[in-house]
Amino acid sequence: MKRYIIYLLLMFSICQSGFSQTTELKGRVSDDAGIPLPGAFVKLADSTYSAICNESGEFSLQAPAGTYTLLVSYIGMESQEIEITLPMEERLEIQLTSQSLDLASVEVVSTGYQQIPKERATGSFAFLDEELVQRKVGANVLERLGDVTSGLIFNQGPQAANDPISIRGRSTIFSNTQPLIIVDNFPYDGPMENINPNDVASITVLKDAAAASIWGARAGNGVIVITTHRGGESQPLQVSFNSNVTISQPRDLFYMPQMSIPDFIGIEKQLFEKNFYRSTENNANKPKLSPVVETLIALRDGKITQAVADARLTDYAQSDIRRDIESYYLRPSVAQQYALSLRGGGKVHSYHLSLGYDRSDADIVVNPSNRWTLSGGNQWKLLEGKLEAGLDLNFARQESSSRTALPNGYAYESLTDEAGNPTGIIQNYNTRYIESVKGQGLLDWNYVPLNEIGKLDNSTEAYDFRVSPYLKWNITPDLNLGVYYQYWSNQAAGRNRNSQELFYNRDLINKYTQKDEQGNLSYPVPIGDVLDVSENNSFSHTFRPQMTYAKVFSGVNFLNVLAGAEIKDRQGVGFSDRFYGYRDDLGSSVPVDWISRFPMYYNPGSQVSILSAQSHSGFTDRFISYYANIGYDYAHRYFLSLSARKDQSNIFGVESNQRGVPLWSVGGGWIVSEEKFASGANMPFLKFRATYGYSGNVDKSLSSDVTAQFVNFQFYDVLPQMRAAVLVNPPNPDLRWEKVQMTNLALDWETQNGFFAGSLEYYSKHASDLLGEYSVPSSSGKSSFTGNFAETQTRGVDLSMQVKWLRNSFHWSTNVLYSHLKEEVLDFEKEPTVNNLLGSAFLAAPYPVVGRPLYGIYTYEWAGLSPDTGNPRGFLDGEASEDYRELSRAATIENLQYHGSARPTSFGAIRNDFSFKGFSLSVNISYRLGYYYKRRSIDYYTLLRGEIGHGDFDNRWQQPGDEEFTQIPSLPASADSRRNSFYSNSGALVEKGDHIRLNDIRFSYSFSKVNMPWLPFRTAQLYTYGNNLGILWKASDDALDPDYQLSRPLRSFALGLKLDF
Amino acid sequence: MKAIKNRFLLLIASLGLISCEGFLDEKPEKSILVPQTVEDVRALLDYYTNLNDNALADFILADDWVTEDANWESLSPWEQNTYLWKQQVFEPSERSTDYTKLYRKIFTANVSLEVLEGLGIGAEVRSLRGEALFIRALAYFQLSQLFLPSPMLGGDEIKLPVKLNPNVNESSQWWPVSKVLIQVEQDLVEAFELVGSSSQFKNRPNKQVVKAVLARLYLYEERWEDALNAANYILEQGTVSLLDYHEMDSTAAYPFSLFNSEVMYYGITSSFSVTASSATYINPDLMGKYEEGDLRKPLFFTESGEKHLFKGSYNGDYNLFTGISLPEMYLSGAEALVRMDRVQDGLDLMAILAEKRYQSMDFWDGNLSKNPLDLVLEERQKELVFRGTRWMDMKRLHALGELDDVPTREIADQNYQLTGSDKLYLILPSYELELENN
């Protein structure tokens, strides 16, 4: 610790040297559009006096009085020579023009600590400018990265639950999988939904060690840096307004194929005849049975005639609850977005202010949500630029409510009767029981879903607030010290009131109702509403002192040093509570007895206490970090970067020496095209880059001590007053941070006039000390143990290219993104079990096998259907076999069939942009290649236990010969879990996932005052945007989308208008 | 300028100070508890939803019950196999929930013992140590009943993993039943010295509860005199009292209440598909043994067609009570006495219980013509039906050669007999063996 302080002190002491004998020249370099050119090189000819522009494009230079020629240069720009005489009072404003008129605008990537012109960077950055960020329409900012960011993929399917976004694969197994998100220089603590995408000026994705290691122990999964709009210096007031409406299809209940209802009724009849329902029918808990089974019971018991029964069954065969849900509950969802922003600035003060409102109405009727965002900021330059200060305020309010829930019923239940009136469906208890208690004075125990539409009172409301002031002191032209601070707070509250109009409420009261010997009823759960409330409050303080030093030595050596420390404290507390007998109009509730156990009305043998639903939570996240970054640039051709960071955090119980981990990186770059020998070549820009280094990752849920947790009281506990604790973690004194080592090699190029530009990067990520969980014998007291013992490796290539085919009045350019990666587990001490692997296709947790990617598709090898019985078969000693027990016994990790990665090994997108006059068209086509997935199919085991099955049932094997055209086994005589589990884990269900998708299309028309002077605004853009437009090609003939196996990807269309004043 | 600079440096230096004063020592989650104090151990040992939850296999193996084909079909494969008294019951990649549950209890006990080591020798520390020893001993005893043969039949080549400390990384020792039961006895004897003579809640053991388990152990080891002494200890204390079944309401859905006066130690076995199923019938042979005038018949059972379902749980609901109750002590004491040829003493003891169980003593006296040992054993089976002790009794009687009629179960027109596994134990899950060998 002390060592670091001294280290920092040394760094600050560099600023002691004086510059008293010289005069100062100040200026600002920008491109022809007025956009600052950070990193532009300024030099007094025939001298060693030189400077490099800072992130605002400003420079200042100390030199003796006299007359000089000032040389100003910047890669991709025409150099300028200006005659000046020092001393000079006013600030120089220098504008450079592009070498080729069409060179891509200067990309200034942000690491969150500093802005670096991309041309000077050694690391791997993917940069999205404002146009690309604003290309998509929607309320979520992260979604805008999809299929326009090289190396970044949105994972799909069940396995994506824990890691929606992967940057260059996944470098962890059980720890945090998500990239670190930085908003305006600070790690963002709030929910991403609170960022208004209209405020975003650019997004930089940091992919390699040189880019990310400055973020240290949290950067192992990559870093996404979001920069919002700021008012520019000397910029006249700009007002923009953007508004759009997006309409999406409602969910498709018929997407997952379902067996025909008459077939299912047939199965229920069969099961009934075999007395399958007998034990449920007699069960003391009065569990529900389907309408068909109830009809058959009534017929058996002589309660109805054969004719009535037949009529009912015919009715059921023609009903489908999905149709009713579709017509009464679903509609296209509508999202509206409005955003207004103002920004501008003078010499001393600049400002921005923006207001956003988003509203969406979900595809289920009356479930609206909305968001307000307000952000504003001021920057000042005082004392002739010696002191800079700023203050940003951000506020977001998010509200969502659920007034309707989709009902859950048997496949053929109807929500209305013949006359079209709402009718009840079966819920929790069987109809015989509900009928039998009529007239006992209970609340209505029927569930009529249509009567509950709009009756839920369930809402959440969250406020998010950030304030970030800073102060920067430019001690000398080369050296500045800054202090940056951010306070963040978030208050989220939930409220769910279940009124008596809801079955849930009436059921709860009825269940607990007590009847005395005279038949009088009493209500341990009092009559009235049930109100659940929850509240979560969190806040963080981040404080960061930082110094930067930038100086040119001997005219060609440019040194840039950044060093600082960061301390962060993030804390949160939350609770939830429940009130019974609540009256919303009076705001009063009734106390209940949580300790006594009450016999249930429907089954006195079942005694439970009243659920208190109280809980408390709290967390503390603390970091202390030290970081430094040194950039060295020689003659604009050679670049060297070094960075280091040490993080310490409050990982529980780890000895302090293991808490911290030093992470570092080194990188180099060489602009070949700047070399004299290359001056004749037809390549205005060619650059090599290479970096190497480490970043980290951590799982704070583990501990080196044995830990326990108090057990929450459950309503079925017999001793609810008992304070009991359960052991959670076995001790692990060797716990440490995960480490990701990254190597990146890259080539950037651009041909004459920017016709063909791109970059090709090769990387290798080697993650070690990964936390992994493995099974241990139960005799140890635990069934699994987590420690730092796994290792993975990812190697890959990211290619991004742009071709500008036409640049006349008709513009046509093509952007190609291609990423290929190979992920491999190098070491994992304990192998998963065969069942782990077989089941893993539908699970979020990875089951690592050495030599394979983290997510793979494993199956029993498929030997086809038996031609005689239609039974599924596997291979046992090379012979087709139906001995499922043996097949499962004989399976080993080695003899399971490994099909390949469950995640795309190649992916990317091809985007074509066209424009002509005011019209623009942008079409993005994405592709995913080299992976497999497991289809769902008929589950005979659950079918024969009375649950409706998959549509594959209709195409099953029914008679010898069918095996020629179907792989779907025959219906077995009885529920056979082994046969079923063999089939569902067999190779018969594996499909190739490769596909090409028409992602989205944006079409717009822009009006400009330049062409139409009568316009009341500067520019206006009318745009439409279509998303999820469909699959163009796929390798498998599965009817469903490979990436969306459970529900259809919903198509949406948006129409919007953007005005700039 | 210098002054500001100095202040700035001071600020940075203060960052270091904060870290030194525990800034990074705060725990990341409020709910994390590192067990260190007496209260913490108290809470660990009060985790009754695990510690007082008993193995389901004991129930499935017992011949107290039968089921029909359709219901058997709906059981999970290991339950089906266990029902048919197979020896290898677990699927190749399956863990046994019972096995896991029992070792989790042992782990909790071992952790508690370790934490207590550093907490001195106060009264509460001593009694908690006793409780932990008791929990560990009971769990090993139950494991040995399921996974090891009877100690009276030899079979020392069959072993069980044993751990007496909480170190997860240390591999287990493999002990045969003789050695396991020596440890069990040792722990129980020490626990008896340490625990209090009464406990506030019935999920916690006290001296009588420890003695009750010792009585079971001695019966299991055919140490009749020790068993008698242990049972007598409880009977002499007189702090728990017998329920008078004359006063119970047989029309109630569940006539007995939780923690009634006979309950010494809470225990539960619950499984929706097995114990709570409406197709879990009383073995008709056993049903036939309840004679006229036996008050237990209407209190314990309810008719379902021609078959009988159980409603006599001391938990007062459909969960089975498998803890320790007072009548067991009368029965154990009486059995020991009869086996020690103190027949009259044994029958006298039985009569105390019978008075509370038969409509009048005339009905009981009619029984006295039977062989006294048979009478005591039959009463034991009838009294402790669905209480989780039958499997232990079956193993004892089998070792003694007294299990006259070989228990038989029928599924899909096929008969399965208990003798299918001569030494009456389950083979450890092969998955566990695989992990142990790794």
Automatic annotation (TrEMBL), chain B:
SUPFAM superfamilies: TPR-like. Gene3D superfamilies: 1.25.40.390. It comes from Algoriphagus aquimarinus. It comes from the Bacteria. InterPro entries: SusD-like_N, TPR-like_helical_dom_sf. Residues 23-219 form the SusD-like N-terminal domain. The lineage of its organism: Bacteria, Pseudomonadati, Bacteroidota, Cytophagia, Cytophagales. This is RagB/SusD family nutrient uptake outer membrane protein.
